[in-house]
Structures are given as structure tokens and as C-alpha cells.
Amino acid sequence: MTLELVVTLIIAAAMFGTGIYGALSQTNLVMIMMGIELILAAALLNLVAFWRYLHPDAIEAQMFVLIVMTVMAVEMAVGFAVAITRFRSRGSVEMEEAQELKG
Amino acid sequence: MSVQVIFLLAFGLAAVWFGIVVFRTHSMVRSALALLFSQTAVGAMFLVMQAEFLGVLQIMMMATEMSIMAIFMVMFMMDPGGLGEMDMKHQRKLSLWAGIIAFGGASGLALFGDWGPIATQIPDAGEQVRLLGIELLGRSMLIFESAGLTILTAMIAATSIAVQPPHRPKETPDKSKEPYQVHNHGGAA
Amino acid sequence: MSSFVLIASLIFATYGVAVIEEWVSTNRLRLAGPLISTLRLLGQENILPRKSDRLFFEVGPVLLLIAALLSLAVIPLAPGLIVTDLATGALFFNAALAYVLVAMIMAGWGPDGAYGMIGGWRFLGQLIAYAMLVVMPITTVAMRAESLSTIDIVNSQEMLWNIAYQPLGFLLFLFAGMAMAFVPPFDLPVASGELAGGVEAEYTGVRLIIFRLGRMVLILSVSSAIVVFYLGGWLGPFGPDWSWSMIKILGVAALMLSGGRMLPRIREATLLAWSWKLGIPLALANIFLVGVLVLVVPL
């Protein structure tokens, strides 16, 4: 029976969809980062579910989860650094005001 | 329907609900802490799936990470308390449809994929920690070390981006202070 | 039966910590002191600040209590006296206490008061100072025990307590634990002299009781972690196991509370500078040192 796996994957899909919605709809850099965090959490959930229900003997999957957690931390650190610089020079981190980034 | 499914559903619905609250509330601190509880529910799902080390790690890391997010929200938002009911969304239709399509696609894949039988025997928690440690310092050592190096690089990069730049003169400096400027004060020689 | 003994001894220990806390701060030993102040606070009016974030205001103190109680779940008082022996106990202790920060931010932000908010955000800075110094000494303890389970950690100290095996780690963990339980001189979030109670400032009545109870359980949990990780847990020469745990835990709590009183309250910036410039190099050196010791003299 694969009910556990399917339930977990659907929940991860819902989190992924919410994250995509948030990352696209928010105008603030910090809120966009929150959307990305949700997307990464969905990825983590999928990885753990695949490890638990399909390949419990492959411990590399847990290793992969640690790497994704690293990516989350790095994303936060660099994102906030960019936010600080932007806020210092332009006085806001609103995306609507960042028109000069448009190619 | 086993106990595991019930717990997965309960924590999963909590995770999704808190995830939606993140983008619905007006208060920024509430938004960050809703994300925290969403991540905590994901950690609890790891615990239900018997990945004890990862679950505890997720619960521990996210508490700090999301609290830091909360203080940045307060720093950078115009209305952190959410009392002014500001609107902070754009491209509503596009993002809503993108979210729905992403959810539909991924869950369709989950429903119609041929996953085969699921595993029942997994190593117990202590054994998992041991195996993970051996994996980290064995075959995957290079990957793990590069993750560490990535963090170090990110730390240095983030710090150097974020530090206050040294004070530079203004772009249109006061002309009178420049040495090559000749001052003519109406014939006063 | 054993769960009853466990709950009773935890309640007793919490009460003991409260008595000690009152003793060191007012210099009067009153065994009924905590009971009297609880009764007094029960009679106090429950004031609700204007324009408060009601949800955070109510949840903050409760979350503090829950986080502290959860961290006690992995602390063994005697071989059978433990709520749950997790394979990742030492990490779980840390994970549960990370939520103290969340509770403080909630309780500080909730009432919409300047003092409370400054206190709550101060604790975030304090966490950035102490978090590494909690995790790194735990790493060395786990290295010696070759396990993250708290029972294995106590058993690994049969020959020699960790305080003698890795004294540097003990000192770092003691200071970091004091910062984690925000006892003086690290009581930045509730600094009574400068912030008028900080996070506590807007709380009255039953909510203040829960907050203070949570703080007492937090101090108890940190001191029992010190006992389990460094002072050999229940190990003692004679008598029942649990009594040794009890004596050591209350002793460490008294040491933390009375020792800290002697020092002036540290500034946030100083705390951060010391813990990152001095503490973390020392903790890394400790990891290296203990690694060598574990290989060369495995006691």
C-alpha cells in the first residue's frame, strides 16, 4: 500500500504550490524569500518520503537532505545581505521599485 | 488507514495551512512565525516518518532561522505590525495560476506515478545516526566538505556585501573645498 | 509508578529552584516563598494591553513553559526515570530550547510595548551569541559517549566525569547555559534595572505565573543538562540514584543563580564579541583536544 507515500507527496505538492504563489505574488524581497523557503521545505519533504518509503537502505538520501538544508541557510544569508545593501542605498526592498533590474 | 497516515495528514495539513497563513496575514511577525510553524510541522512529519535525526535537526534549525527572518521583516517592512492593511501583492492572477498548476502537476504525478510497494523495514534511529555519520565522513565526504565550504563562502560574501561601506565623498561635492578652485571675491586681492 | 516518581521529583525540583531563586535575589530563605507569590499573583488583576497582538500575548508564556518541559523529556534522573530515551536526545534538548527564543519574541512582540519588544529582540541577539557555544560542547560530549542518547552519555562517565575529562567544554557550556536560561549576568531580555522587566513588563496575574513557572522549569532544565552532560548524571558513590541527580541539579542551579549575581550585567555587544571572538575558538579547540583525548586516553 502506497497511501503514506502519496499523502506525503500531495502535501509536499501543496506546499510547493503555495511557495510558488508566494514567491511570484509578493512585492517584498523578504516575503519572496519566504516563498522560496516553502518550496525548499516541499523538496525536503519529498526527499525524506522517498528515502523512507522507497529506499530506506540508501542513507545518501539523508545526506541530500542535509545539503538542501545548507542551501536554505545559504539562501537566507545571501538574501539578507542583498536586502541590507539594497535597503541602505535605496531605502526599501520593494520589488516594484527595482525597475532598473529589468533588462 | 494506519496511524502513520493519520499523523502525516494532521501535521501535513498544519504545514500547508500555516504556509498559506504566511501570505494571508498582514502582520509581518505573524507571517514569519507562521512559516516557522509550517517548517516545524514538516519536521514533525520527518519524525512520523522515523527520520529522527533529520526531524530534530529541522525543528532546531528552523526556530533560529525563522526568528531571524522575523527581525528582518520588522526591519525592512513599512508596516510590520500590519495595522495599516497595506497591499503587498502584484501579478495576482499569474501567481495564483502558477501555484495551482504547480500543485496540480506535482500531485497528479504523485497520484498516477507507479511507486511500487513501500518499504516496511528501516534502520532504527540510533543506527540511522551511525550510518549517516559514516556516510558523511566516507563516500560523501567531498560533497559534505563542499557544503561546508559553500557556507564559508556565503558567510564571507554576505558579510562583505552587508557591511557599511566606508564614507565616500558625495557625488556632487562642494566646489568651494576643492583645491584647484580659484576664489574670486570681487576684486579683493 | 516510576512516572509518578518522575513527575513528583520534577515538581519538587522546580519548586526548589524557585526557592533558591528567591533566596539569592532577596537574601531571605522562605520555603513557602514561591507559594505565597503565586497566591499573590493569582489575586492580581489580569491586565490586557491596548492594541496587543492577542494571539502572541497569550501563546508566548505557554510556549515558554512547553519548550522547557519538552527539553526535560530527554533528561534522565536515574536509569529508569526518563520520559523518553531518544536516540538523538542531546540534539533534541537543544531543539526544544530553541523554542524559548520563539516564545520570548512572541511574548515581547505581543503586548505592543516598547520594553517588551526590546527585550524580545535582545534575546535573539543573545541566541546568536550562545547557540554555537551550546552545540559545540555537546558535540564533544557525544564524541566521548559515541552516542547522542542522554543515558549513554551518563554511562560513558562511569570512570571519570566529563567535568574532569573536558573542563574547557564544561566552562563554555555553563556560561552558554546561563545565557540560554537568561539568569544574571545574562538577563538581557528581562533586565529589571534598565528595561523595567523587559518581556515580563506587560504581564500580570495568571499569565505572569505561567511565564515565571516556565522560566523556573527552564533553569531546572539547563542545570539538569549540565549535570547529565558534565557531572555524571545519577552516578554517585552510595545511596539511591535519583537523590544524586537531585542534589547535583539543585546545586548547579544554586551555583548558576548565586554566582551570576556577583557579576554586572553584560552588554549585548560585549556578549556577542566575547562569544564569537573568544568562545567559539575555544570551543573549536575543545573539539580538537577531546578528539585527541578520546583516541589516546579512552577512559
Structure description:
Chain A is an all-alpha fold and 103 residues long. Helix content of chain A is 77%, strand content 0%. Chain A has helices at 3-25, 29-53, 60-90. Chain B has 189 residues and is mainly alpha-helical. Among the domains of chain B are: 1-77, no CATH class; 126-163. In chain B, helix 1 (3-24) runs antiparallel to helix 2 and helix 2 packs antiparallel against helix 3. The longest helix of chain B is centred in the middle third of the chain and has 25 residues, at 52-76. The radius of gyration of chain B is 27 Å and the shape is extended. The mean pLDDT of chain B is 82. Chain C is mostly helical and 299 residues long. Chain C has one domain. Chains A and B meet through helix 1, helix 2 and helix 3 of A and helix 1, helix 2, helix 3, helix 4 and helix 5 of B.
What's the short version?
The complex is a heterotrimer of chains A (103), B (189) and C (299). With 103 residues, chain A is mostly helical.
Which helices and strands occur, and which strands form pairs?
The complex is a heterotrimer of chains A (103), B (189) and C (299).
Chain A: H1 3-25, H2 29-53, H3 60-90
Helix pairs in contact in A: 1-2, 2-3
Chain B: H1 3-24, H2 28-48, H3 52-76, H4 92-112, H5 125-136, H6 141-162
Chain C: H1 2-26, H2 33-42, H3 54-72, H4 89-109, H5 114-145, H6 150-155, H7 162-165, H8 167-180, H9 205-230, H10 241-261, H11 268-296
Q: How many β-strand runs of chain B? A: 0
DSSP strand content of chain A: under 5%
- Overall morphology of chain B: extended
Largest interface: A-B, 75 and 87 residues
Strand segment count of chain A: 0
Distance between the termini of chain B: 100 Å
